[in-house]
Design brief:
Elements (H helix, E strand, L loop, with lengths): L18 H17 L3 E10 L2 E7 L4 E7 L3 E3 L9 E7 L2 E6 H11 L6 H4 L4 E3 L4 H7 L3 E2 L5
Parallel strand pairs: 3-5
Antiparallel strand pairs: 1-2, 2-3, 4-7, 5-6, 6-8
Helix pairs in contact: 2-4
Length: about 150
Amino acid sequence: MDENAEANWVLVDYANLDIRQQESHNFHKLAAVLADYGFDCFRIPNDYKGADFFAHHVPSGRMLRVQLKSALTVSKKYEHQHGLWVAFPIDGEWHLAPHSDLVEIVGRTTPALGNRSYASGRDVFWRQPTRALRDAIVRFRMEAKRG
């Protein structure tokens, strides 16, 4: 293709992406939002202490280990991963929260931590959280800049 030729780019349909492509897509969408807050994000090829990527907050020098999810998720396997953050979208808005805070909030606002699924080590997740859960996590919403 001639580098000077007009390109006819077409938006991708997220639903047609495979799991790896969706994770890559979500990473880049989130990284763009986090850049507005002063973060540089670095994907890692294999989970490191539960993390899918590192988010370096340039102004403070703080480095976050972040697990990327497609929905608000808590997992028993991450309970001992101190300092692990979880990033997830709700209705197109990204949230970034310490996993330990999410566990506390979920335990306070839902019965989910008492169910067999969670006790056996399965993830518990909400694509559309309850109003009480949404209200409890609003402080973790990362607003994207427009323009």
